[in-house]
Every structure is written in structure tokens, then in C-alpha cells.
Amino acid sequence: MDTTTNSKAGIASPIQDVDKSWDDEVRQLVQTLPKEESWIGGGGGSLYLYQGFWYIARYLKSMISFQTHFQAFDSDVLVASCPKCGTTWLKALTFSILYRDRFARDENPLLTSTPHQLVRFLEHDVYADNPCPDLENICVYKPRLFGTHLPYASLPTSIKDSRCKIVYICRNPMDMFISLWNFTGKRRDQNQEPPLSLDEAFDKFCRGVYLSGPFPEHVLGYWKASQEKPNKILFLKYEDLKEDISCRVKHLAMFLGVPFTEDEERQGVVEEIAKVCSFENLKQLEVNQKGLSRAGFPRKDYFRKGEVGDWSNYLTPAMVERLEKLIHNNFDDSGLVFKLSSKTSMA
Ligand code: A3P
């Protein structure tokens, strides 16, 4: 990727100047923000509270570029989520559904590229090295498809004002917390940092201090927006996908404006997509086993257990009680219900 020049702007030096001035601006901004230690410790940088959510400084810079410069097209599709809620899965599904007529059925690009390479994060990746990236060349297929962990309120206005579509995935907060703790724990280990105890991590989680946290505000932002604009925002739950993937794949295709034809259904295309994107398939692919993600995490760590209810193997009764209270206090009036295991739900 070209990180210093921009073919649309045509000239290199202004971008370098913008970059320099952004650095100063971000440095000054960061000094004014509330700060906490990140989950991955030392090398991961601190977390800063900006526009009501927590980010590492490096992402703040690219996030501000994204907020300032991104111009949405009505045809764009955005995969949005809080980290560890099923982003990788939803990226794989959305890519496979949206572009299914662009490649042969046994040549899905997911077999050789990771979901995060095919559907790139705008604020963490696309805008990471360049405040004005050439978006046309970044997306191989059209319509353009991107990912984001930004909360709804922080999305660029052109996304909110245009007719572009957003698919959001959330997950019950107990499983999300355990997934996050395991994921960041491996990175600490890799960096030879002492582990963050479950108690310490739990306290941070309940205070909302983690990348793109707090969870309730993130989820409720998209939940409310999806209720106001159901044709623009599709709100999905990890647990529902686990329960009936074929039904969700068809729903997602319908929402994206590319419903499966009767012929496709007869030929088993829905089941084929569900299978290519399944945890079992993606996890074993060489491309997802080796190497590091753009954010520096081992690719294999994006695929851990892929289950609903794994929290019960970790959380103490006192932790469960505190999280149940957090769910009640934040979600009771919203109409949003979380499935905590393959059987139980919580309003
Ligand atoms: P666990 O840690 O509970 O296993 P994200 O993609 O947002 O980072 O979320 C990661 C979580 O989704 C991890 O959960 C991971 O195992 C799970 N996951 C990744 N790919 C999946 C897939 N294809 N199907 C179901 N779960 C998947």
C-alpha cells in the first residue's frame, strides 16, 4: 500500500504536511484526554477517552482522519461492531454474500486472504498511514465494503446522512469479556508482559475501559439507530447466527439488496456460504493460522472457541451478579435481550 502519496490528491507534499500537522494536533489533543493503561500493556500504548469511548493514541489519529475525510457512497456497506463480538465472522459472511457472483464457488477469496484483509477497518487500517487514502483502489469489488469499530455517534456524517448500509453485530457481554481477556492476554504473553488478572480485567470491563468501550453505549447507539432506520442498519446478534446461520445468511442477503434466487437456494448456495464462513473452516485455513494482523495480533488468535456461554468456565458468581446488574441497568428499557447460553436469555 502506498503510504506517502495519494493519486487523487496528486501531490505528495501537502499530504506529508497534513500528516505532520495531524501529529502535533493529536499529540496536543491526547494530553487533554482522560487516560488509562491498555489491556495489552507496555507496547500497546495507553487508552484515551475521546467522544465518550476509549481508543489507543495511534488509532485516534487515523480515526480523526477517517471522520474528517471519508465520503460515503449510497452504495457503500459497512460492517460495524464492538471488538470480540463476531466481527471476523460477519466480515466473512457479508463479503461472501455481497460478491458471490464475482468468483467461482470454489474460489472464494476467503480461502487465501483473511476476512480482515478483504474487509478492511477504516479507522485502524485504511486511514492508518494516509489521511486521504485512495479508497477506489482499496476495495477490489464494488459496492465498497469496509469495517469499523467506531460507535454510531462517532461515524462521519456522510455515512449517517447517505443511504449506505450498516450491518452491526453484538454479543452477550459475558462472552465478549472472556473473549477480550483471552485475546489481549495472548498479546501480553507475546510481549512478555505479566498477565492481566481476571479480576483486574473485569474491573476495567465494568468501567467500560477497553478499545471502543463502553459496551452498553456502543451497542445501544447502533440498536437505537437500527430501530429508527431499519432499512439502513441491520442489527445482528452473535448468538442468533450460531442458532440458525442459514436463516441469518438469507436475511443478511435480503437486507443488502442481493437476495438469493430460488435457483441459488436449490443449489445450496446459502449453506455453502455458511460453511465457508464457519468457525471450523476459517480457523483451519493456513492464511488464518500464520502471520500477524495489521494490528499486530497473531491471526490465529481471532479464532478461539467460537461458542455461546464460555463465560461460565471463567466468571465467579460475584462477577456474574455484577454483569447481570450492568445488563439490567443499561438494557432493561431498550427491548434488547441477550442470550447468555444456548438456552437462557436476559433482558
Ligand atoms: P471466542 O473468543 O469466544 O472464541 P471478533 O471477530 O469480533 O474479534 O470476535 C472474535 C470472537 O469470534 C472469538 O470468540 C472467535 O473465536 C469468534 N469467531 C471468529 N470467527 C468465527 C466464526 N467464523 N464463527 C463463529 N465465531 C467466530
TrEMBL record:
InterPro entries in alphabetical order: P-loop_NTPase (IPR027417), Sulfotransferase_dom (IPR000863)
Annotated Sulfotransferase domain residues: 74-335
Keywords: Transferase
Catalytic class of the enzyme: transferase
Source organism: Hibiscus sabdariffa (roselle)
Protein EC: 2.8.2.-
PANTHER family documented for this protein: SULFOTRANSFERASE SULT
Name listed for the protein in its UniProt record: Sulfotransferase
Record-stated family: Belongs to the sulfotransferase 1 family.
Top-level lineage group: Eukaryota
Pfam families noted in UniProt: Sulfotransfer_1
